[in-house]
Amino acid sequence: VVGGGGVADAGELFVCGQNREGQLGLNHNEDVLYFTPCTSLSSMPVTRVACGWDFTIILTGNGQVLSCGSNSFGQLGIPQASGGCTVPQKIEITTMLAAGMHVNLVEVNGTVVGLVFQWGTGMMSRAKRACQGKTIPSFLMAKEPSGVTGLENIKVKKVTANSYHSVSLTDNGELHVWGCNKHGQLLNKEIFLSEPQKIEANFFFGEKIEKVWSGWTHMVAQTETSKVFTWGRADYGQLGRNVMVQGGQSQEVQRSSEQSLKQLPNIPTSVPCLTGASEIPGPMSARLSFWLWHRDGTCGPGPFSVCFDTVDHEMLR
User: Fold this and answer.
1) What pTM value is reported for the model?
2) Where is the RCC1-like domain positioned along the sequence (predicted)?
3) Residue 247 in this model has a pLDDT that exceeds 70
């Protein structure tokens, strides 16, 4: 399940949520409160889906990439669709994908390297302000798939994007990041990175990265020994650990032992209780851990504004 869309075992796509721009692909723009099958794709098994701010990118079993929703920033990768699409339309590109606010990433599997393509102009205004007097790479201004420079000779196995930053994970366990660094999520002294920069392994005790996830303005990475590191913005408890916020005050966002230390949010720090965490559903007795802003009941039970807790599988039935 990703954002407002989920893929069933048989490859059937179910969608729900806000649909003002037709991002659910249901051929209308009315909001949908319950998971509903996307009938326009009933003849195409879906393998992956990525939900952006007001658009959706879909990968089918035969390698086609489709998009629907708003195209105001060229995020659909279909320049001719100036008014957006309420039914998924084909993009001339294939395989692994990620969606940010107004930007998309696609990794094309090859025999030697995994080429990374990006489109959508959501980063362009920030790039212009931060890179005055410098040439802005074309992929930051593209309304159709454009190769990301700096990754041409690197084998990328996963891409992820959110808000105004992007991340790639290489086959040898390295992270490359670019885009907005306002909250220190890119681990760089520059406020904006116009091209991919590698994050040094010493931030993770020299370990290789196996998985990476991107939040709105924060990051989560899991190493080869299953340690989970978080860093970036922390004012809504999204790092799942103790942090030092502005003014020197400690913000408690982790229910753990007395050993928890106050940490700077923009330094990757391991969250011990998440070691070994996986996206794979566990048995019926499994417990779900969460840490997020508790708005409108998003955390489930409890009155916490910011919380870190677990939920029994039975509570999710």
Assistant:
1) 0.71
2) 8-277
3) no
